Structures are given as C-alpha cells and as structure tokens.
C-alpha cells in the first residue's frame, strides 16, 4: 500500500512539473503565429541594435551588470502570460534565456516555457524578419512594463 501511495505521489509530481522546451526558428515562427507570447529579455540597447521579433513583449530581465529582480520582473510577465499559459522567451543567443526559462518553470509555476535556443542572432541569421523596436520601446516605457 505504501509503495502504491508513493508511486502515485511521484506520478502526480511529475505531471505537475513544468516543462522548458528548447525551440528552433521554425517552431518560434509557428508558435508566435498561433498567439503564444514572445518575451524578449534583452537590454534596450540590444533591441535598438537588432530589432525584435514582431509582436514581442519587451521585458529586460538582467541589467547591464547582470543583476536582476526576478520578483518584480515576474509581476510584469503575469499580464502577458499566466502560469498555465505557454510563453516563449528570447534573448541575443539563447544563453540568458536558459536560467530565465528555468526560473519561470521551476520557481514561478509556468507549465510550458519555450526557450529560443539560438536567440535573436540565430533568428536573423536564418532570415527571420525583425521589426524596429522604437515603437514597442515607447509603448512599454509609457506603460512602465519594459
């Protein structure tokens, strides 16, 4: 009986565990077109330098010195995607999004987090379209969300 209860608890905890899924450019395009929000965690200077994936929500996670305020950042994510909704996270090359994706899935309770493994650099190199960031930056600054 104890083994059955233990096995049941392990099965339930495995199902409740969040998932981080590394995605490529084709998957990014398909998911974004289906309405899954894309959160770009880079710095403003990076958005201005390369542009952004159209429709991305601009929400810097790490500052210029690599510091972050995860709790404050998470409060800005919640209006974009609830923990039971999928979300895509993108940065320059996919390195910063790894810990951010893990934070969302393991600590913030997000059930499906997509990590763009090659970042915006990979997206651009593959010919993915980008939009100028200026109007998105102005919008998120006015709303105090970026």
Automatic annotation (TrEMBL):
Domain of life: Bacteria
Keyword Zinc: no
Keyword entries, A-Z: Signal
Annotated Rhodanese domain residues: 32-132
Endpoints of the signal sequence: 1-18
Pfam families named in the record: Rhodanese
Stated name of the protein: Rhodanese-like domain-containing protein
Protein source organism: Dechloromonas hankyongensis
